[in-house]
Design goal:
Blueprint lengths: L3 E2 L4 H11 L6 H6 L5 E2 L12 H16 L7 H6 L8 H4 L21 E12 L7 E12 H34 L5 E8 L3 E2 L7 H5 L5 E11 L6 E7 L6 H18 L5 E5 L10 H10 L6 E4 L1
Parallel strand pairs: 1-2, 5-9, 9-10
Antiparallel strand pairs: 3-4, 5-7, 6-7, 7-8
Helix pairs in contact: 3-6
């Protein structure tokens, strides 16, 4: 089996399982049922796709927890405690009359004492005089407790919307997968990180120089009602382009495979992330309308 890394603690996963399923199991039995290929990440397993919104407000919650301002640093618990119904859009977007002004309850009043916390911010790099680059850095800031608490209460308002959108998208994706019709196909795609190609035996100028080439991997999973198990696919290319022409060059053999193996499929659902330079841009939507005429498909993008 392919190794999978846990992105959350088993306690949090058990809590989510209890809230989403009617079958109640104990925490110890839940840990026993963990598949052997799902392992806890080690120091070598870096997280490279973290959400900036989660990270910054998570730094604040961790700092408050250490200072005794909060009794918990779990962001979902803190956000859910400020709304009547976590699954209600009106509550998440501040349209509910009952909980629109509810703030996170602090364990003690904030003081004027200075505290240090980390934040990720975007700034312009001055290392290259010819061309300025936008970089994201992790900075340590020193502010007073009451100042950071006010910022935290403001951020939690937007975070509730952010959290509701994530949960709604997961539910919609799961529902779409479970209710696929015979003429429908769901394709979940995303670019993997560029991999560095290396030789088994390298000369010194190749190993320490810039002679290594990179390969782009475009990964995906395909679901149909006729196929019980999902079909995983991956295409590799020496080109490092991630723009719409490259996307459809990677998807072209996949659509040919769907057309040859699943003759009844006439409607496609695409699920991906939303970077403005890749899937979510006007060039990609133009290709969506023109590309599918050659394959006789209807499409729905998500």
């Amino acid at each position: 089996m392919q190794k999978r890394l846990l992105t959350d603690t088993l306690k949090n996963l058990h809590r989510k399982f209890q809230s989403e399923n009617s079958d109640q199991v104990s925490y110890s039995f839940f840990c026993t049922l963990r598949p052997f290929w799902v392992v806890t990440p080690t120091e070598s397993d870096r997280k490279t796709c973290l959400c900036k919104t989660h990270e910054n407000i998570g730094f604040m919650a961790s700092t408050f927890f250490k200072c005794g301002l909060l009794s918990s640093k779990n962001l979902e618990e803190l956000a859910d405690a400020t709304v009547c119904n976590p699954d209600s859009k009106a509550c998440a977007y501040g349209e509910c009359v009952s909980c629109c002004s509810t703030a996170v309850t602090m364990a003690r009043p904030a003081s004027n004492n200075a505290i240090s916390l980390n934040q990720r911010s975007t700034e312009t790099s001055t290392s290259n005089e010819e061309k300025a680059a936008i970089i994201t850095v992790k900075k340590e800031l020193t502010k007073t407790e009451d100042e950071v608490v006010d910022q935290f209460q403001e951020k939690i308002i937007k975070f509730k919307q952010h959290l509701f959108n994530i949960r709604w998208q997961y539910r919609a994706y799961r529902q779409l997968r479970e209710d696929l019709k015979d003429h429908e196909c769901l394709i979940h795609v995303d670019f993997s990180e560029n991999y560095l190609c290396k030789y088994a035996n390298e000369v010194q100028s190749v190993h320490f120089g810039g002679s290594h080439q990179q390969a782009t991997l475009h990964t995906g999973v395909l679901y149909t009602a006729a196929q019980k198990n999902p079909i995983a696919f991956c295409s590799i290319s020496p080109s490092r382009r991630h723009d719409p022409p490259a996307i459809w060059a990677h998807l072209d053999p996949v659509l040919d495979m769907v057309q040859s193996r699943f003759l009844q499929v006439t409607q496609l659902h695409f699920v991906s992330d939303g970077p403005a330079t890749q899937y979510r841009q006007k060039g990609n939507f133009l290709l969506l309308f023109t590309f599918f005429y050659t394959h006789n498909y209807y499409f729905l993008s998500h």
